[in-house]
């Protein structure tokens, strides 16, 4: 529990380097583990979710160590894992669970696995069904949920699969099985989802062809350890972008943010809302990087539709907060995926922001945010709860910056899933203690 005050009248100022990208950190461990030779990872994200993946690989016999600011993974090759002594604990991490269901779908032993309460309610059929078509075998609770078992299996068969939902986790699970399968595996995406798996497979020496939404992989003989530089996570930076835009008199610089084209939806949507967001590109051999500079400015409501969702899926809670401060209505549609994130994010965004005066209507696949509502605590103080969801916790903290009255954050520990130092960085920008 932590009490937050409003931002000072002088606004938020300063330079922040948000931690490494969560999606890329998970994948660096995964590719490092199945490669031969050493992988060195710079700017690795030390957060609860990614540490979960690290622990899982250690239980599978992979040597992973911290060398100064870097992580070193000594690869085991595609067939070098040892049977874990315990059931695999996936914690809160959907990315660990879904990607590892693909990666570990051809092992000579059963692996029971389980997760926390939130993860145990998230659908895994979207991964288990396509992987089963490749001959992977799972026992899941009600065919769909944790706890379950990734079953022993010695043969995977390639397939062609048209994605029913835009999901990088589903796509990645299939590709990670595909590189171990006989024949060709083809994934067809109607809307592009984040492509870090494809890029990293290529970086580790794998062969993959991507052509207009059609992604093709073959069985890979060997991948080779690499040096991976993890960019700062745009999904974490998004909280400060919005904080800078909606807190009067602010100017914030976010350093070395990953601006992979499949991830920059939040910038594009804020620009459509009238924001001027400066990007100063930084030369990079890997994923695209830029410094991002935001200043407070007025915004207007927009229509956010299904095509906009995949590249901004994790940023919709903080975009909803921005929309409460925009002039006019913002309509979010085609975003039913929000209902199966760490929480039902349509419900939790509305539950928390309406406590402080936001005017939001719920839709089955999104929300209608009537903008221009000053945020305030009706009387006394108010508790804004994360519901155990890191991105809801951070949205609440940013909302507190512009809320009149005493806001108390609860469940703030959840922020550690992707951004353990979030509140400390916020304090730096406020230049006063909270
Ligand atoms: C992720 C993909 C997205 C995203 C999640 C990370 C990944 O999930 O929401 O935070 O690293 O592949 P979906 O695949 O369910 O859209």
TrEMBL record:
PROSITE patterns reported for this sequence: EPSP_SYNTHASE_1, EPSP_SYNTHASE_2
Domain Enolpyruvate transferase: 9-425
Pathway: Metabolic intermediate biosynthesis; chorismate biosynthesis; chorismate from D-erythrose 4-phosphate and phosphoenolpyruvate: step 6/7
Annotated catalytic residues: 314
Binding of phosphoenolpyruvate, residues: 22, 94, 122, 169, 345, 391
Keywords: Amino-acid biosynthesis, Aromatic amino acid biosynthesis, Cytoplasm, Transferase
Entry annotated with the keyword Transmembrane: no
EC number(s) on file: 2.5.1.19
Catalytic activity: 3-phosphoshikimate + phosphoenolpyruvate = 5-O-(1-carboxyvinyl)-3-phosphoshikimate + phosphate
Broad class of enzyme this protein falls into: transferase
GO-annotated molecular function: 3-phosphoshikimate 1-carboxyvinyltransferase activity
Annotated compartments: Cytoplasm
Residues reported to bind 3-phosphoshikimate: 22-23, 27, 167, 169, 314, 341
InterPro entries reported in the protein's UniProt record: Enolpyruvate_Tfrase_dom, Enolpyruvate_Tfrase_sf, EPSP_synthase, EPSP_synthase_CS, RNA3'P_cycl/enolpyr_Trfase_a/b
Keyword Amino-acid biosynthesis: yes
Gene3D superfamilies, alphabetized: Enolpyruvate transferase domain
A Pfam family matched in the record: EPSP_synthase
Quaternary structure, from the entry: Monomer.
Chain's role: Catalyzes the transfer of the enolpyruvyl moiety of phosphoenolpyruvate (PEP) to the 5-hydroxyl of shikimate-3-phosphate (S3P) to produce enolpyruvyl shikimate-3-phosphate and inorganic phosphate.
Protein family according to the UniProt entry: Belongs to the EPSP synthase family.
Protein name, per record: 3-phosphoshikimate 1-carboxyvinyltransferase
Taxonomic source organism: Leuconostoc aquikimchii
Gene: aroA
């Amino acid at each position: 529990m932590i009490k937050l005050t409003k931002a000072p009248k002088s606004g938020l100022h300063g330079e922040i380097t948000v931690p490494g990208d969560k999606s890329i950190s998970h994948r660096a461990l995964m590719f490092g583990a199945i490669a031969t030779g050493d992988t060195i990872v710079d700017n690795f994200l030390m957060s609860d979710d990614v540490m979960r993946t690290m622990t899982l690989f250690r239980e599978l016999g992979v040597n992973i160590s911290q060398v100064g600011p870097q992580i070193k993974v000594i690869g085991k090759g595609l067939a070098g894992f040892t049977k874990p002594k315990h059931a695999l604990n996936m914690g809160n991490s959907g990315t660990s669970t879904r990607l590892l269901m693909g990666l570990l779908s051809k092992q000579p032993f059963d692996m029971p696995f389980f997760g926390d309460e939130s993860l145990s309610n998230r659908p895994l059929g979207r991964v288990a069904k396509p992987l089963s078509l490749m001959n992977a075998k799972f026992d899941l609770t009600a065919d769909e949920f944790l706890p379950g078992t990734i079953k022993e299996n010695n043969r995977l068969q390639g397939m062609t699969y048209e994605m029913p939902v835009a999901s990088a986790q589903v796509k990645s699970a299939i590709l990670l099985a595909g590189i171990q399968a006989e024949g060709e595996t083809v994934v067809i995406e109607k809307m592009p989802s984040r492509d870090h798996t494809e890029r990293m497979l290529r970086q580790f020496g794998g062969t993959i062809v991507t052509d207009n939404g059609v992604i093709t992989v073959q069985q890979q003989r060997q991948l080779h350890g690499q040096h991976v530089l993890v960019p700062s996570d745009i999904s974490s930076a998004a909280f400060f972008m919005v904080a800078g835009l909606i807190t009067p008199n602010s100017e914030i610089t976010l350093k070395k943010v990953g601006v992979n084209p499949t991830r920059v939806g939040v910038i594009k949507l804020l620009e459509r809302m009238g924001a001027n967001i400066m990007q100063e590109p930084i030369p990079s051999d890997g994923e695209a990087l830029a410094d991002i500079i935001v200043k407070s400015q007025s915004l207007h409501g927009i229509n956010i539709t299904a095509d906009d969702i995949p590249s901004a899926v994790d940023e919709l809670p903080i975009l909803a907060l921005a929309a409460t401060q925009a002039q006019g209505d913002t309509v979010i549609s085609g975003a039913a995926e929000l209902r199966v994130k760490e929480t039902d994010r349509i419900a939790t965004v509305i539950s928390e922001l309406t406590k402080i005066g936001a005017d939001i209507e719920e839709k089955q696949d999104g929300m209608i945010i009537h903008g221009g509502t000053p945020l305030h605590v009706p009387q006394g103080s108010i508790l804004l709860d994360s519901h155990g969801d890191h991105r809801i916790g951070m949205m609440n903290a940013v909302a507190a910056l512009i809320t009149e009255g005493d806001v108390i954050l609860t469940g703030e520990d959840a922020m550690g899933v992707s951004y353990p130092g979030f509140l400390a960085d916020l304090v730096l920008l406020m230049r006063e203690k909270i």
